[in-house]
Amino acid sequence: MAGLELLFNCVSNSLTCSQDALICFVHWEIVKSGYKCMGIGDEPKDGEKKTELLPSGWNESKELYALRYRSNDDKSNLLLKAFTVDSSLIFNLMDSTTEKVTDLTVNLSEYVDEANLHTFESVFKNTDELTAKLKSSLLPSKKEERQGKTEKKTERERASNLRDPDSDPLLIPTRGPPARHPANWPDPMAPFAAGGADLDPFGGRAGGMIVDPLRAGFPRSGFDPSSGIPGVLPPGAVPPGARFDPFGPVGRHRPGPDPDHMPPPGYDDMFM
After folding, report:
1. 95, burial (CB in 10 Å: exposed 0-12, middle 13-18, buried 19+)
2. Fewer Cβ atoms within 10 A, N terminus or C terminus of the chain?
């Protein structure tokens, strides 16, 4: 009960009913749990400071009490609300860290002696039982606070690990250079798409405006200009992939002309 007597003496002149005295007791149990009071109402206000005392105006309404608390390490916030229903006070406590809401109904006559409302030594009854109820049913335990912080950290880490940067619908995909096909592979473009390769700064595709029979998608003879032409061009004289028009017999095994394909001299001279 250390500290509760000082708190009670600070507010005893403003106590007007059993609800006020019980709120004072619950407030001190929250302070002992590692919290300070920030103010009244649901929303924070400018200039608020953490304090162990009850704020000004805390008991203006006897039907609804609303107090806000913040942990000493500033990592957790509590919102306490208490409703008067007949001879009972119903407490609701929301913990912003674990997003958990707890509640407790307390019979006023069991724990407060309204006849001795301004005497600290006799105003509270069954304090040990009341403290046990508050700790088991209303106040956040240290274990829950640590667990809530750990779970939130784990969720953030899991979300970070599962996040795929390529899945962002607003991400503009990077564009790499167009694929280059080896010289002997069929060109994926239509055989009559003449001139398209002139727009390719990387080259490696079909010819330009001149249709190249060796690169237009038609069957090829297997002749590779870069291998050279025996007796005419050494190997490497034609760069790989360059357009090349043969200017002589290609290969060693091409058949020569037929000796009988030309008429003999003077065959049409009737006087010979």
Report:
1. buried
2. C
The sheet carrying 100-107 orders its strands as 35-40, 64-71, 77-85, 88-95, 100-107
- What is the Cα–Cα distance from 167 to 220, expressed in whole angstroms? 44
Torsion of CA 235, 238, 242, 247, to 10 degrees: -110
Task: Taking the CA atoms of 29, 33, 36 and 39 in sequence, report the sign of the dihedral they define.
Answer: negative
DSSP 262: S
Give me the CATH number covering residue 44.
3.40.1000.30
| Any domain includes 206 | no
Give 147-152's long-range contacts (Cβ < 8 A, gap of 24+).
147/98, 148/95, 148/97, 148/98, 148/99, 148/100, 149/75, 149/97, 152/97
Domain assignment present for 121 = yes
For residues 4 and 193, what is the distance between their CA atoms, to the nearest angstrom?
92
Nearest to 91 by CA among 182, 99, 101: 101
The kind and range of the H/E element at 110 are: helix 108-111
The answer as to whether 16 is a domain residue is yes
What would the pLDDT profile of 229-272 be if each residue is shown by its tens digit?
666 677 777 777 676 666 665 555 555 566 666 677 777 777 76
Q: Give the mean model confidence (pLDDT) for residues 95-110.
A: 92
Residue 59 belongs to domain spanning: 4-150
- With beta carbons less than 8 A apart as the criterion, state whether 77 and 68 touch: yes
Half-sphere exposure for 212 (CA within 13 Å, toward CB): 19
Query: How many separate domains does the chain show?
Result: 1
Paired with 64 in beta bridges are: 83
